[in-house]
Amino acid sequence: MSSNDYLVTSxxxxxxxxxxxxxxxxxxxxxxxxxxxxxTSIKQGSNIFIAPSGVQKELIKPMDIFVMDHQSQRDAIQSxxxxxASCFEIEKIEQIKGLPRGKDKEGMLGFFDRLQVPxxxxxxxxEDLTQSLEATMEKYPDAYAVLVRRHGVYVWxxxxxxxxxxxxxxxxxxxxxxxxxxxxxxWLS
Length: 189
Fold this sequence. Notes:
The protein has helices at 16-30, 70-76, 130-139, 160-182; strands spanning 41-44, 47-50, 66-69, 86-91, 114-120, 145-148, 152-155. Residues 72-82 have low confidence and may be disordered. The chain is an alpha+beta fold. The protein has a 4-stranded mixed beta sheet, sandwiched between helices. Strands 1-2-3 form a 3-stranded antiparallel beta sheet. 22% of the residues are buried. Helices cover 29% and strands 17% of the residues. The longest helix is centred in the last third of the chain and has 23 residues, at 160-182. It contains 4 helices and 7 strands; from the N terminus they run αβββαββαββα.
């Protein structure tokens, strides 16, 4: 056992390293991750537990999980805004109720609210997304997701259960938006 193995070793199924493995298997079964694509992370205290890249997500084991110190990561990020950032917007959709109103705001969005999900450009390497992702999260503090063009979506929540609910809601909304576009229906009134 290495000196940091204790961070990912636990019999508690809710421990982030175990929970990520379960979530990745579930996301694989739902078709949300394929091949070695898809990322999942959980912040607990000052640690961020991260599913590895380039590994089949349905086969991840707790010992595969990376652990990063949150403060060290924040200190390493330099602000840089994505000049091509745009925003996906949709309203008057029932499932919007699965998403919170925003950081430090009470309640969930409702049918008449407008959901905004910022969009940033993809990069050749996932780690190169850090600057534009961080800047976009600061620009849209009420967002709980960021779409990465030609890559996928990053979703987070106040806890694992809320993040999962939000991911499921967004999956439904994005699928509905594609179908609406195909049928020539507007996303905004």
